[in-house]
Amino acid sequence: MSEGSAKESGYICVQLGPADRRECVRLLASLLSSSGRRVTSGQQALVNQALTSCSLPLYARLLRVHTSLWYSDSDVTESSLPDGIHASISALLDHLEQKHGYSVVARAVSYLTLSRTGLTEAELADLLSSDNEVLSEYVQQGAGASYSVRVSQIDVERLLLDLRGFLIRMTFAGSHVLFWVSRHFKLVVAKRYLGTHEVRREIHSEMAAYFSGWWTNGHAKQFLVNLKSGANKDTAQIKIYTDRQPPSQPLVFTSLSKGAGQVNLRKVVELPYHMQQSGRWEELVHELLMSLGFHQAMVRAGLLGDLVTMLEGDKGSSQSLLLRERLLLASTLKSCACLLQPAPLELPMVMEMSLLPYLEVFPLLEGYVREIRQERRKRGNGLGVALCPAPSSVPPILCLKSDVKAKDVSVAEAAGTECGIVAEIMDDGSAWVWKGSRCDVVKLSLSCEQKELEFAGVKSSGQFVLLSTQCNKLFLWDVTGPEMFLEVKDPLKTEFEPKSDQQTPNKIEGFVRCQKKLFMWWKDESFVSVFNLSSETLTHFQCQSSVTSLVCSSNGFYMYCGQEEGTVSIFDTDSSSLLGSFTNSNRSAVTLIIICEDKREMACVDRTGNVTLWYVADKTQPARLAKERFTGGKSNNILNTDYSEEIDTLLVCQCHQVTLWDTCNWELWDQFLGPQGRAFTQAVLSQDGHLFLASLDACALVLVWRVCSGECVLSLETNEQPHTILKTATDVICVTRDGCLTVWDSEMIAAAGTAPKIGCGVKDVVFEPTGEWFYTTDGSEMVWRWRLKTGFPDAKFLHDGAVEQLCLSQDNIHLVTLSAGEIYVWQTETGQNILRISGSRATEILITPNSNFGVSISKRGLSQVWKLAYGSIVCSIHLYLSDAKVSPESTFLIGCHRGDLLAASLWSGSISKRFSCAESSEHVVAFDTLSEHPDFVVVMVASGAVYTWKVAEETVCRHFELPYTFQCQPQDFQMSSDGSYALLSTANDTMSLLDLSQIRLCLFRAEGPVIKACLDRAGCFAAYISLEKTCDCNLYPRPVLTVVRLTDGERVGSVRLSKNPLTLVACRQQSVFVGFEDGSVGVYSVSDVTTDREEESVRQGENLIGELKQCPFDKAPFSWLPLPTPSMIWP
């Protein structure tokens, strides 16, 4: 290690060599003297001779043990001292076996050797007591067979006393553990006692059982004892069940205080290791790697990196149990590492938010999410996810990069096979291969005449990869077989050694594998080479111009060659004869040929994206033109195509647009333009065709579009500009320009890309009292009805104009909407538009609490009170009342007019009540009605004074006046239904609340500016969204939803939101609704044991687990149409 690297790593490397013999002699004399022993002169001569052959300090320490057993008259010879360190250690173990017993010594040193981080003295005693072999010998030596027999701590200490000088005590994770002083002890113990794999597995299994706590809490363990009885000393074997009394091994030691307890570091470090080494893979995966409790303990212990390594598994290991689930967990933990390391208690919320969108893809993760919710219920408070908003990105399951690639080297070409093997050719001539999730990216080396070959290109077809070199050699690799490369020799492509940088190899354009033949063509060459894999013979087919594309019939009898001049030639592959040729009208190069053998059709896509369809019923007759289809617009060259026969769809990517064709009828389906100022570089279809993925120039993202709506719904992050997007049977792989591989699960992309959204930002949310159904509007012509249980909108209410407002009656029977000045009344059960009222000039609509009447408020005309079911006007209110509310008893419309608070009768329309007080004539700033005290209204005036107004009796009571530093903001003002709490304002990073029950002001400070806040009408909690810098990885603050308990101000929970919120509403069912700018909705359940309803919404949210959600494309929401014309026109 160099001096610089030593400073950087924090370690100092000291080279140890053999000591001088005289120093070893003095060391041995000192050790003997300290124990009150010495040797005679004759014995000393033998010692000096031994130290001459091995002058290591460890050998001197071992000689101290052997010579301390001599007496002055002992007859010693050269053979009395073991030769070398290993022999000395073996002699020491022989002596210990005679003194303490074979089983005790063998097992004790084996446990010390196979432990991962050493053992404490208590752990060693517990392990020996749990070992049947040790305990059987211990009982036979006279310890007796009782229910609670154990190896005594004194016997363990005696053994350790004899090993003093060879064990060192170190502090690890707060515990004093014992380690061997030298690796030589491990080598000798392994050879002496751990010679077979079965024995090692047995020891590891015993240690795994101990650290898992399997035999705790009085669980008796069986073992067999041989006892001699009777005069003949007959041996009888009996079964004994004993409680070995090991300590409990929880993941976290509970604390009597409110703290989170202390992590059992010994368990989290040792248990996974011994489970792995003992081959208990299923237990390791199911009980630890897929366990929230284990994850929490590891993260709290600061071992997040070790946890990720365990989840990803050892590269090259054959164990793939729940591999993709583990890779998703590892990817999620890595992406949130900077958040979880300083705040490990956020793990359950982070994991629940991250995993919920993908439970259908990975149903085995349902148990993990259920564990999160059970843990929250056990804890008694927290914030859960009842409906997860649509993801804006998808976490990769793997990110791979080879550390040995040069920094200045970039990818020249990449290809992938159907089974997921990826090959990259770098511009320095090196080749790299990735063989799947269990492998690293490794370099591929081929040599010819003792010279390593440099590669020029790579192509793939099915299960084959074709590699071309700089010297025009071709190598074929069948990835499903052994790693063998078959050289394909083509006499028309002569090999050469490049003599200058200007001389470039012939670039292979592509190849197709059909039956047992390989069809290859080169750039700017007019012939096709056909290689027979069985006979390894090569034949050639000559075309009219340069070959640009090729396809074969399913049986391999016919070959179709697309050429530069727009010509397609058909060949008989058996006879090598030309059957016919035909040319498209614009003579543009053919880039893709699609054969439909059932219909006897052939479609040709030219370089500019136009499609020509031919009938080829008889190969011997000229093809007949069926139709030509032109894309129109710019005629830029095609970048790539992607054809899916299963869904009859063809994608054509050009720099300015992506075009989709319906290949069943060969009609243009849709065209998608790229973002302004950006050009497409590649596009591919998703597996089901509902989405397509595309890369753009100068953009380190892979963007995902939803085909049916044309929205860009996802952005997949990469570390650099994508070079190639590859599809396999299960994954999407992005190869970046520097050669890194980012792998996403195809089904995860489909789940995230098809998650429900309503198109534009959610501007308003109303919900039924049960919270099961809720309605959203985004400012368009539609109102969407959602079902919380499924998480999908099941119906949409259409209007003839943009929806400005919506209201839901308290009996859930009627939905009233305001659109383009017209009022629509809908029946929620049937979706029927029963009323469409014109001429109202309304700017706001309300529904009375008794659900019988509607109120339309107009700024420039009369405000009308009307029967909700029929639309007939009951009365008119002449004055405009702003911020109006209907009294809980449905008798008054209360609102402000020029600073005064007025109450208009809903029967006559007249202003029958006016708020007034003798002390002040100030303007009313804010007010609210109280449903639990229907006679009263809480009023706040400009000076900060707070009043209650009994409307019916027109009596006013002044309670107190707020300090001038606390100003009420009318747009933020909200009150609980019982009048106990009021939300006054949000300013910067502060939310101000008023506790009317105790006459106190409360300030809640956030970690950043508060942008939205709401109050639970039941008076249990308040919720706010603030912009916070959650970690150093984020350049900008991100929104965080926080819920606080009103009674004591304690935080119930918080959640990091992945996108910008537009709407925040609290529901009586202990839930918070958040509407986002991308049209998705998140519903978060509040669990708090201090409320009477702490479990209701949490149980409702748990119904989401295990219920199969339906794909939104399989069943579109019902569309409820409005009445074609107004059914009623008000004067």
Structure characterization notes:
- It is a single chain.
- This protein is 20% helix and 37% strand.
- The chain is flat.
- A 5-stranded mixed β-sheet has the order 42-43-44-45-73, with no helix packed on it.
- Among the domains are: 280-379, no CATH class; 974-1100 and 1109-1130, YVTN repeat-like/Quinoprotein amine dehydrogenase (Methylamine Dehydrogenase, Chain H, 7 Propeller), CATH 2.130.10.
- Residues 1-9, 496-500, 1092-1102 and 1104-1108 have low confidence and may be disordered.
- It starts with a helix and ends with a strand.
- It has 1131 residues and is an alpha+beta fold.
- The chain contains 21 helices and 74 strands.
Topology summary:
Elements: H1 3-9, H2 21-34, H3 41-53, H4 57-67, H5 85-100, H6 102-114, H7 121-130, H8 132-143, H9 153-162, E1 167-172, E2 175-180, H10 183-193, H11 197-212, E3 221-229, E4 234-242, E5 252-253, E6 262-263, H12 265-277, H13 281-289, H14 292-300, H15 304-312, H16 323-335, H17 337-340, H18 347-355, H19 366-379, E7 381-387, E8 398-400, E9 411-416, E10 422-426, E11 431-434, E12 441-444, E13 447-448, E14 451-452, E15 455-461, E16 464-469, E17 474-478, E18 485-488, E19 508-514, E20 517-522, E21 527-532, E22 538-542, E23 547-552, E24 558-563, E25 567-572, E26 577-583, E27 590-596, E28 601-606, E29 611-615, E30 624-629, E31 638-644, E32 649-654, E33 657-662, E34 667-673, E35 680-685, E36 691-696, E37 701-706, E38 712-717, E39 722-727, E40 731-736, E41 741-745, H20 746-753, E42 764-767, E43 773-777, E44 782-787, E45 792-798, E46 803-808, E47 814-819, E48 822-827, E49 833-838, E50 844-847, E51 853-857, E52 863-867, E53 873-877, E54 882-886, E55 892-897, E56 900-905, E57 911-914, E58 924-929, E59 936-941, E60 945-950, ...
Parallel strand pairs: 45-73, 49-74
Antiparallel strand pairs: 1-2, 3-4, 5-6, 7-72, 8-41, 9-10, 10-11, 11-12, 13-14, 15-16, 16-17, 17-18, 19-20, 20-21, 21-22, 23-24, 24-25, 25-26, 27-28, 28-29, 29-30, 31-32, 32-33, 33-34, 35-36, 36-37, 37-38, 39-40, 40-41, 42-43, 43-44, 44-45, 46-47, 47-48, 48-49, 50-51, 51-52, 52-53, 54-55, 55-56, ...
Keywords: Repeat, WD repeat
Organism: Lates calcarifer (Barramundi)
Protein name: NWD1/2-like winged helix-turn-helix domain-containing protein
